[in-house]
Amino acid sequence: MARQFFVGGNFKMNPASRKDKVALVKLLNEAELDPNTEVVISPPALYLIPVKGSIRKDIKVAAQNCYFKDSGAFTGEISPAQLVDSEIPYVILGHSERRTLFHESSEVVAQKTRAALDKGLNIILCIGETLNEREAGETAKVCEEQLKAVVDVLKESDWSKIVVAYEPVWAIGTGKVATPQQAQEAHKDIRSYLSKAVSSGVAESTRIIYGGSVNAGNCKELSTLPDVDGFLVGDGSNHDLRDLVVVGCS
Ligand code: PEP
User: What Enzyme Commission number(s) appear in the record (predicted)?
Assistant: First the structure.
């Protein structure tokens, strides 16, 4: 089964002003995008509703995080129910910055994934190893452990709403992109794990995208790898997202 190519833009805590946000939306609205690529942009929570209201309809919008409760005394959090009520279709969960800076365990990521799915959201689920873990030969083990927490709380049918983002921590925001060989090996191992832990059908149909210092200049070769189904772009999403979709991945 052909997997639709996917390009996500994680703006992180950028842009710093409403003016820059408007300029970014304008740039994307005027771009000629590949109609065969699913494009999802993820602005900061404060900008989700205005971006959703002003971005072209063939670009979807994602939150960068959500909590696992519907409502209540959880200061600073956003619930899956609120995202659905605001017509935001996607949420990024398990980003390494959340895991590291905000101490989110794989179990919490799994709880959030379950809650988001229960409300009907699509998930970009991030996993990936640190440099120490890679150097210790533990890349596959770490990815499996992070995925297993989610596998344990999902039904087979839930996987149609999940995009797995393999994002080696050492490549995020560092300018050090994984080599094609490193990316293909990790993606293939993740697919094999899904086949073993869920089903061969889920392994075959689930999109596994790569994130970590991707830009318009280095995406071309990565995009041709058999198990790489797209990208999650962080810093590059302010200037390169349009090129990634138009040039790099068409
Ligand atoms: C990310 O934050 O998901 C990411 C891939 O960042 P960058 O492209 O900046 O490495």
Answer: 5.3.1.1
